[in-house]
Design goal:
The protein is an alpha+beta fold and 158 residues long. The protein has a single domain, classed as Pnp Oxidase, Chain A. Helices cover 16% and strands 46% of the residues. The strands form 3 sheets. Strands 3-2-6-9-10-5-4 form a 7-stranded antiparallel β-sheet. Strands 1-11-12 form a 3-stranded antiparallel β-sheet, with helices on one face. Strands 7-8 form a two-stranded antiparallel ribbon. The protein starts with a helix and ends in a 5-residue tail after the last strand.
Length: 158
């Protein structure tokens, strides 16, 4: 069976995922679609970042915020996914935690985390982080990344 990078990418384009913006003091941030719950007790999550200027800043940060995005954030996800997009503007709704990390007040949830482990794999780094604070935002519909697009759907009853 062929194991090419192109076929691997094509496989994951077919798999819809949630969307988050990971932010750190600086401010610096980037869009990720690889956030996963690792443990509920103690609370921990993981995500991966590509080797880029923003990715290296995230990997080097002692604390981060994983902002889980909802339907109102498709444009923001695109902004943080591409180089040169507007970031941390007042119109996007950013605030700063007392500990210095930027967080998105309108996110479904913002999870302040501290890295526990980092694993370098090819041109990416997987970060496993302990969740130290959970800020719940408004409930809205879904924002998913599927086939290189950000897609929104509204939940019934919301």
């Amino acid at each position: 069976m062929e194991h090419s990078s192109d076929r691997f990418k094509a496989a994951f384009r077919r798999y819809p995922t949630g969307v988050a913006v990971v932010s750190a003091p600086g401010p610096v941030g980037l869009t990720v679609s690889s956030v996963s719950s690792v443990s509920a007790d103690p609370p921990a999550l993981s995500f991966s970042v590509l080797d880029s200027p923003s990715g290296r800043a995230i990997v080097g940060a002692p604390s981060l915020v994983v902002n889980l995005l909802g339907t109102d954030h498709a444009d923001l996800a695109g902004d943080f996914a591409r180089s040169g997009g507007p970031r941390f503007t007042p119109e996007q709704g950013w605030s700063t935690l007392p500990t210095g990390e930027p967080f998105l007040a309108g996110a479904l949830a913002s999870l302040r985390v501290e890295p526990l482990h980092q694993v370098r794999v090819g041109g990416s780094t997987v970060i496993v982080a302990a969740v130290t604070e959970v800020l719940l935002g408004p409930v809205s519909g879904r924002l998913v990344h599927h086939d290189r697009q950000f897609i929104t759907t509204h939940s019934e009853g919301h």
